[in-house]
Design a protein that fits this description.
Length: about 425
């Protein structure tokens, strides 16, 4: 019997039906997701099973600055258990000096490297012209067009030294690295220019190109270049596989009577500042513009499954995962996108003014004759600086051995070289 009451318990509640529908939908979605996870897990297990014992590993040589990025991407690549031509694909990353790799490839002796490499990431595309220096090497060394990362060059000083240096203001040009006699700062300021070795460092070579452009050609220009070579402290890379001097050592050279200044990369500064938050470096982007160091991916094997694996790794290097880690390590992406580093002390996320990249004729270890350099033999014998030495050799050839103060320099028969048109960059003092 119906009483006709329509109390709260008897009312129609659409909210309850919606909640019931939402719960059913959630349960259904969870079931679908679980099914997908099981399917993907089974697929991964199957992939591992087919790769077991059938692995082809591509050996990739990289400059030490980019090694953390390459290693992280290689780990990601290996975790995917890819199959290439029916074999499991893997990548092993090794830090190697770009100069050493380029020299071995140019001589047609990649086997000199241990292990022999199948791909290469140098610190600049300038090294490719060295590596492709012979017809056989040109066939073996094949650029892929992939650039992993970029980083512009900057002029850096320890923060305390920069605070004492009024000329290290908002606008600093390449002249900051030059001696007073060649248009640089006054000697009384006590600047100690620590310059990266241009025969081992793309940063040093690129900077030398711009300094040569500032000096120009002719007798006065050769004297200015000689003065520059004599007044800078040429610093070798911090490690055998690197290309830039240690910024830790550089920062420790700052004293009350010296003001060290150097040319380095933006990424190196970011890495230093992260490791030393209490003493970040002061940096400036050269006001005339700067060069960008690029890290190209190059194939160095002729064929087979190893080449296919190296090509597959190249596709991973172009992924969004790789780009994110490039920015995290302080590099810029090939498009110029920077990470979120602080803007204090001169760092900037916006792209700096760019100079025209150096051409192929300025490779640091290329034959000197390729850029129009002529040999000049010092008079023999040259037993002491007073009778001959590097002073007279400098007067005749236009260069001096930076950092060398031996009274017996150069030894008898040492061949000096001088730049002349059409040199794009000066020939740095050779070792022999």
């Amino acid at each position: 019997m119906t009483t006709g009451r329509t109390g709260a318990a008897g009312r129609y509640r659409p909210g309850r039906k919606r909640r019931l529908g939402t719960a059913l939908f959630t349960i259904l979605a969870a079931a679908i997701a679980a099914t997908l996870l099981v399917a993907l897990g089974a697929r991964t297990i199957a992939a591992r099973a087919t790769c077991a014992g059938q692995t082809t590993t591509a050996q990739v040589a990289v400059s030490s600055e980019i090694q953390p990025v390459a290693q992280r991407v290689a780990t990601f690549f290996n975790s995917e258990h890819r199959q290439v031509d029916g074999r499991c694909a893997a990548v092993a990353v090794h830090a190697e000096s770009a100069a050493s790799v380029a020299g071995a490839l140019a001589q047609g002796s990649p086997g000199q490297l241990h292990p022999a490499i199948n791909a290469w990431i140098p610190d600049s595309s300038l090294w490719l012209d060295v590596a492709r220096g012979s017809p056989a090497a040109a066939k073996l060394v094949q650029p892929t067009g992939i650039v992993i990362a970029e980083t512009p060059l900057v002029i850096a000083m320890p923060r305390a030294a920069a605070a004492r240096m009024p000329i290290f203001g908002t606008s600093v040009g390449w002249q900051m690295l030059l001696p007073q006699s060649a248009g640089g700062p006054a000697r009384a300021l006590g600047l100690n220019v620590q310059y990266p070795d241009p025969t081992r460092s793309a940063a040093g070579l690129a900077g030398l190109v711009e300094i040569k452009r500032i000096f120009g050609y002719g007798r006065i220009a050769r004297g200015d270049m000689a003065s520059f070579a004599l007044n800078v402290q040429v610093v070798h890379p911090a490690s055998g596989a690197g290309s830039l001097p240690s910024l830790d050592t550089f920062a420790r050279t700052s004293g009350s009577d010296t003001a060290p200044v150097t040319l380095t990369s933006e990424q190196a500064v970011v890495a230093f500042d992260r490791a030393n938050p209490g003493q970040p470096l002061a940096v400036r982007y050269p006001s005339q513009g700067t060069f960008q160091l690029s890290y190209p991916y190059v194939l160095t094997t002729s064929g087979g499954v190893t080449l296919a694996v190296a090509k597959a790794f190249g596709s991973t290097l172009r992924s969004s995962y790789a780009s994110a880690y490039v920015r995290y390590e302080g590099f810029r992406t090939p498009g110029g996108t920077a990470g979120g580093w602080p803007a204090s002390y001169g760092l900037s996320s916006s792209a700096p003014l760019q100079l025209t990249p150096p051409g192929p004729s300025v490779s640091p270890t290329a034959p000197r004759w390729a850029c129009g350099c002529s040999p000049v033999t010092c008079p023999a014998p040259c037993p002491t600086a007073s009778s001959c030495g590097w002073a007279r050799c400098r007067a005749r050839s236009g260069w001096s051995p930076a950092g060398r103060r031996s009274s017996a320099w150069p030894p008898p028969g040492r061949r000096c070289r001088m730049p002349r048109p059409p040199c794009t960059a000066p020939c740095w003092p050779p070792t022999s």
